[in-house]
Automatic annotation (TrEMBL):
S-adenosyl-L-methionine binds at T122, G143, D165, N205. This is Ribosomal protein L11 methyltransferase. Keywords: Cytoplasm, Methyltransferase, S-adenosyl-L-methionine, Transferase. HAMAP family: Methyltr_PrmA (MF_00735). It is found in: Cytoplasm. Methylates ribosomal protein L11. It catalyses: L-lysyl-[protein] + 3 S-adenosyl-L-methionine = N(6),N(6),N(6)-trimethyl-L-lysyl-[protein] + 3 S-adenosyl-L-homocysteine + 3 H(+). The gene is prmA. Its main location: cytoplasm.
Amino acid sequence: MDYRVYELEVPASEYDLATSELFEAGALGVEVVSEGETVTFKAYFKEGSLPERLKPYLKSVSPLEERDWNSEWKKHYAPVNVGSGIWVVPSWMKGEFKEPEGSLVIYIRPGRGFGTGTHETTKLAMRFIKKLLKEGDSFLDVGCGSGILSILAAKLGASEVVGCDIQPNLQEEIEENQRLNGIEFTFVEGSVNAVNGKFDLVVANIEKHHLEPLLPLLAEKFKGTLILSGILTSQRDQFVKTLEKLGLRVVEEAKEGEWCAFVARK
């Protein structure tokens, strides 16, 4: 049976949920083609089929011969220069990638969990973490996905690192990414309310419709600084008002493409 490639276009707010559903249905990988207020992407299948709910978003379906699968998938992942001296490199390039002197390199195996270093929201969050995390800080990553932000925090010297995510079956992928980077952190399957304690730095890189209901809980979890990413620039003003109503003040913000991120304190 040949591989199939489904190309879909979904609202940006639906992308995370759509990809989660696709992986649950048997997708082997996804590849973003373009993004803005909508995200166009390809989903690769050998077994399983497109979930019924996503069929209205389908743009095309085409075959991909089995012998081409690995090269077709991997060619869309290359080392990413995030900025601030950070590089994100695909796992299969470990040992081959020439690490720039003085750089901080994170190796990630693309899989179910969001976070390969290519998305603007991840880059924005990583730059803020590099700038604000102090050695010895405790760190919480809400919606940790692949574990990329938690790995960064551990490499920067955080004393305690916890990542949590509601997406099922991430444990094996996260453990593999920890092994690739020679670090360890605690993974909790669940949302922020499943995590005990308070943290010096809390990060949530989650789209607005998932993030806003969590804001009261996030506000209770951080002792020093809260980093929020995953907000479209068109949503910026309304989101800032929501933060202010919760007694949070924005002390810094950054933008890349159609996305923005915030640093908030009480």
